[in-house]
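Figure S7 source data.
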Amino acid sequence: MAHPLITAFFGYLTAALCSGAPLQVAALHPLMADLARQVGGARVTVVDLVGEGGNPHRFEPRPGDLQRMQASAMVLAAGKNLEPYLNRLKDTLQAVSVIEVGSTIPSLMVTKDALHSDHPPDAAGTPDPHWWHGVENMRRAARVVAMALAAKDPAGKADYLANAAAYGARLEQLQRWARGELAKVPRAQRKLVTAHNAFAYFARDFDFELIAVAGLNDEQNNTPQELAQTIETVKKSGVKAIFPEFNANAKVLQSIATATATSLATPLIADGNGTGSNAGFEAMIRHNVNAITQALAAP
Ligand SMILES: [Zn+2]
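Tokens for the predicted zinc ion complex:
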């Protein structure tokens, strides 16, 4: 016969598992937090470490963040080298799984002229971390998160897969809507001049050309020569508008817009750092598609 203490322990364990205590998931990117909420539903509580409006490029975990990660069942990272501290973090966290959500999504490579000041200068030829601008990529990511959650909480597997499928269906609709809207932009205007080159996956999926403007989101990186070259490139492109970003340097862009007789469009959301009604993946895509269509579609 089992020892009463052991019986009591298993009784407690069964009660804990059946009580539906939610799984705590920590995220190192606002869009990974969004994904955990979409796929986890009522079975998870999400700790968004970067926070709404925060910049995942600049985030570095502090002791308080480490404690919240230690208390979580898993940590979701975007992956593709977005989080340069990830190996150190894995060593520190030991038993807590760190899931690089983007690692199985096919990469676009960073080209030399597409560097931005949030990328290390030796990033050329490495995977472009901004995979979250692909709607299909996000659909895949939802399945990755569903499987990761199911591994920690097998009883929830059917729920996670159902949530991922429902979310995926919504994203398919979003993709169709985005294609329809962006089709209003004439071929000659299908060019994105942006403050930071975060939009390679978006440009590939929606058939836009990216105009690389190095260092535009850091005023100190713009020498007068670089600025002159940028102005020349924008003039030659024939675009009607250029795109600032949330949290980026609109001052330099304003002077480029003035010098090239283009207009400054509504700021784009590059790193999932939209706030309020612009927070989250679907809202980010809607916002960006609307901003691009308004600025570049024929009047
Ligand atoms: Zn970025």
